[in-house]
Amino acid sequence: MITQSLTTEELETLRAIPTPAVSNAIETFDVRPRTAGFMGPEVRQMFPALPPIIGYAVTARTVAAHEPGPKGPAPRPDYWNYIESSNPGPLVAVVEDLDDPPTIGAFFGEVNSNIHRALECAGAITNSGIRDMDEVEVLGFPIWAGSIIVSHAYVHLVDFGTPVRVGGLVVEPGDLLLADRHGVIQVPLEIARDIPDGDIQLRARGASGRVCADGRRPGTDRPGVLQWWPARRLRGALRWRSPCTGYQSHRRGGACGRASPHRDRLRHQRRGRGQAAGGA
Questions:
Q1: What's the confidence (pLDDT) of residue 1?
Q2: Rounded CA gap, 130 and 215, in Å?
Q3: For residues 154 and 57, is the Cβ–Cβ distance under 8 A?
Q4: Percent of the chain with pLDDT over 90
Q5: Closest CA to 57 of 215, 207, 174
Q6: How much is the average pLDDT of 41-57?
């Protein structure tokens, strides 16, 4: 049961922030290592046209490689009741496929997507494959998954309401998750309300080395690249131009005295064409 929740307005404000900016903002609070709190690239957005999602995790584990054992599967009506009792929402279903590899049978397709949407889930996240792509996209149910597969095989619930590991991230029931085109990030509840603050966002963007369209760092007239590159490295970088202009120098006058093979080839080609035209 979720005991801590944000208002609808607070959640919508968070949902509008890209996950990289949220990640940068979380770093400023120093509440966890920078290598933790997000899923790996093996879990990706399946329907890019659908919007980002945010919500509290409801969890389950599945197997599809074989039929249920003597104890049978976890009853699906009990799982549905668990989701209903986890409100207030929005909720995000996080389902770990225990198969190795987790690509044998899909838990999420047209049927389960409809069921989870009816249970007020904003979307689903799984390391497994999904199917019925056209039907789920028309339904408008966002899913982050590992692959697209054909069959549901012997898929069944093993348990639910326990910690799961998806995309390298351990997700506890009630964790606040944000997912967009970049991936999935877990938002610490203790700082969630502070992340959209303007000062925090500005600090986070500054930490990422963001620059204006003309190359300046925000709030200054100096070119952004000059602020973090040592002068020696910058001078060395400025020596090089595109192949069409040849090898250029940072020194006064522009030419460093070195020959440019490409430029020489162009000169010879022009001379050759001129001589051919004159001879004709």
A1: 38
A2: 43
A3: no
A4: 66
A5: 174
A6: 98
Q: How far is CA 142 from CA 38, 92, 187, 195, in A?
A: 18, 10, 19, 24
- Of the given ranges (23-27, 40-44, 232-236, 274-278), which has the lowest mean pLDDT? 232-236
DSSP 56-68: EEEEEEEE-SS--
Which residues, listed in sequence order, are joined to residue 53 by a DSSP beta bridge? Answer: 179
Write down the pLDDT at residue 251: 44
Q: Tell me which DSSP letter residue 105 carries.
A: -
CATH number of 8-196: 3.50.30.40
Residues of the chain with CATH 3.50.30.40: 8-196
How buried is residue 272: exposed, middle or buried, by Cβ count under 10 Å (0-12/13-18/19+)? exposed
pTM as predicted: 0.74
Which residue, chain included where needed, has tokens 């689903």?
A: 124
Separation CA 63–CA 107 (nearest Å): 9
Query: Contact at 8 Å (CB) between 209 and 201?
Result: no
For helices 19-27 and 198-207, angle between their N-to-C axes, nearest 10 degrees: 90
